[in-house]
Amino acid sequence: MARETWATRTGFILAAAGSAVGLGNIWRFPWMTADNGGSAFLAVYLLVVLGVGVPGLLGEFVIGRRARRNPMGALRDLSGSRYWGAIGAVSAVTGVALLSFYSVVGGWILRYLLVSIVGPVTGGAPYLASPGPYFDSISFGVEAALFHLGFLAVTGGIVFGGVRRGIELGTKVMVPAVLVLLVGMASWVVTQPGAAAGYQFFLEFDLATLQANAASVIAPAAGQALFTLSVGAGTMVTYASYLGEDRSLPFDGAVIALLNTGVGVLAGLVVFPLLFSQGVDPGTGGPGALFVSIAGAFAALPGGDLLAIVFFGVVALAALSSSISMLEIPVAVLVDEGGWSRGTAVGVLLALTALTGTVTALNPALFDFVAGTLADLLLTGGLLAFLLFAGWVLGPDSIEEYVAGAGALGARFATPWLFAIGVVIPIFLVFTLLTTAGLDARIGVWPTVAAAAVLVGAVLFGLTRNASWRGVWR
Length: 474
What we know:
Oligomer: single chain
Mean pLDDT: 82
Helix content: over 70%
Structural class: mainly alpha
Number of helices: 22
CATH architecture: Orthogonal Bundle
Low-confidence stretches: 466-474
């Protein structure tokens, strides 16, 4: 049976952008920004997106298009090593782990969207009267698990439709709808009193805060950048494997990053002015910020019921565009490596994530761990593995794949890009991991940077010199 491919270039770009344009931008981004110094976090985040996220995105594209297989098969076949195949298989685990908390948040969104729609008929959405207590009552427990299952069912239905009739068709509708609705809301919220304070909080460059908290801001900014760009999980390897012809990977990657960052900024231009216009503290962070703070703002606005429907409709579309990519990773592994039919693979994985997500929905502490520490570690570690593979296993082949269809301008950056993904960015990613573990607080920032450089250097030297790896590392 022939392997599926994208029907159009636009379909691939929108699908990849849809994976990036998700809850990471609209749900996670505002409260991460508020919790980490506002504009200082935004500045670091944008630098990480440009310097780490985009090269990493291209690294995954190169692997996927070169192999035309899922992450497990791509790393195994391109290297000739079952060990690399095992590393690639971790992507399937990452997809299940991400979906295990993501679908819980998706269930919250479905619930808020539903009560927003029926609210005008029943006398008002219940969260408008008491947003904090309402979220506390529905965020975890049996009902949260049931809505998680509903969101998962919608996700599974789209993935079951396949690459062209499911993922591509769905994202061609969802991504433009998200952009149009966000632009409309951003245009409306600018007219609200107090919105200027929200723009200032979000956009003003606060150098003092950045200098005082640079180390503590870097780790969450890196995690957020990787989460929103959907790199490190193997999504972009999987999506690039469905490319049926040579296209400019640098161009496609730049468009996807631009769309992703644009949605994140648009979300901030909606969320923060809306909060400030109603005197709501944006520092009330945490996973419930979107639901508690925004709902509180809707309650004080004329026509808040209608605005809530539009807003949570946007968030629901963004959530689905990302969740389908998370499910597609392990589905591709089972279809390519196990010879399973797409229907069987989707069914089995829905059953598995229904179980793991239900456990997460019943346990707030587990949810916080999976959505925070585990997600950051898996994505950072996954991207580190993909970049070392592209830089040191593929090596010259990565440049060959990079320049195919890129044109003269894109080809100029091929060698600097290879050096960046093979040496510079791995040091940054290891530094991020060490910072997450708190090493910088014990020995200082620059000693931690030095430790990251030494660790990366030792790994590269050992793997390229060890006789047991000959034939695997080139």
